Amino acid sequence: MTARIIDGSALSLRIRDDVARRVVELAKQGVRPGLAVVLVGDNPASQVYVRNKVMACEKAGLHSVKEQYPATMSEAELLQRIAVLNGDPTIHGILVQLPLPSHMDAHKVIEAIAPEKDVDGFHISNAGLLMTGQPLFRPCTPYGVMKMLESERVPLRGAEAVIVGASNIVGKPMAMLLLAAGATVTLCNSKTRDLRAQTRRADVLVVATGKPGIVTGDMIKPGAVVIDVGINRGEDGKLRGDVDFDSAVQVAGAITPVPGGVGPMTIAMLLVNTVEAAERLR
């Protein structure tokens, strides 16, 4: 068996086309969705992520603002800047790129963003709404994964879904979205005793640990749908996922590649959330 490849790049382009259409409709009403991306420090990976997000906004017709500050910026100064953006009517979404410098409290910074502008979906208010099944914003990466499963017509009602990685950014919200879709969800973490026993049960397997190759082909149920959220750069400079693709593709029914899988979907869903924020204020 060779798995069907789930093309996140192609799906993200279709979603961006729909975003661009919605932007045109908003423009007829005198509204242009605006996203502010705030970067503190000079982390090379963060700079790439921010550049890609700003470029995606511009291509879709959104108003984008990139604010970059030195790593020496104080937490108080950052909080003050966020307060200004909260009150800016031309900005509908605010994204603070993580990680932040060590002298800043990331939780405090995220909580300073107005919930209605928290297009990353990380604010405690939005996390709570997701928990109750009434999300204002779905976190971009899990949201993108759900769109991929929807595009592949993966039956989630009653399915066994296993998530490897229990982060606040991916694992936990992913569990909430899959539960809402009717799946039976197992959330694994670093303390899980027999990871292989858990992953082998999965009809849908989502891996988001930041550990390259942690899931191999022999850990996958034949025919399962495998979503690889990991993006890791090897010593050779190549990007690899958390799933050993070469062995997994021989077992899975469908699988996302790295790159070209979940990554493009994360940015696409950021645009969707920003447009939704603008549409709510019409």
TrEMBL record:
CDD domains (alphabetical): NAD_bind_m-THF_DH_Cyclohyd
Which residue ranges does the record assign to the Tetrahydrofolate dehydrogenase/cyclohydrolase NAD(P)-binding domain? Answer: 139-280
Gene Ontology molecular-function annotations: methenyltetrahydrofolate cyclohydrolase activity; methylenetetrahydrofolate dehydrogenase (NADP+) activity
Coiled-coil positions: none
The metabolic or biological pathway listed in the UniProt record of this protein is: One-carbon metabolism; tetrahydrofolate interconversion
Q: What InterPro entries does the database record attribute to this sequence?
A: Aminoacid_DH-like_N_sf, NAD(P)-bd_dom_sf, THF_DH/CycHdrlase, THF_DH/CycHdrlase_cat_dom, THF_DH/CycHdrlase_CS, THF_DH/CycHdrlase_NAD-bd_dom
Which EC number(s) does the record attach to this protein? 1.5.1.5, 3.5.4.9
Report which reactions are catalysed by this protein.
Answer: (6R)-5,10-methenyltetrahydrofolate + H2O = (6R)-10-formyltetrahydrofolate + H(+); (6R)-5,10-methylene-5,6,7,8-tetrahydrofolate + NADP(+) = (6R)-5,10-methenyltetrahydrofolate + NADPH
Alphabetically ordered keywords of this record? Amino-acid biosynthesis, Histidine biosynthesis, Hydrolase, Methionine biosynthesis, Multifunctional enzyme, NADP, One-carbon metabolism, Oxidoreductase, Purine biosynthesis
Q: Which Gene3D superfamilies match?
A: Leucine Dehydrogenase, chain A, domain 1, NAD(P)-binding Rossmann-like Domain
Assembly: Homodimer.
The role this protein plays is: Catalyzes the oxidation of 5,10-methylenetetrahydrofolate to 5,10-methenyltetrahydrofolate and then the hydrolysis of 5,10-methenyltetrahydrofolate to 10-formyltetrahydrofolate.
Name the family.
Belongs to the tetrahydrofolate dehydrogenase/cyclohydrolase family.
**NCBIfam families documented for this protein:** PRK10792.1, PRK14186.1, PRK14189.1
Q: What is this protein called?
A: Bifunctional protein FolD
Organism encoding this protein: Bordetella flabilis
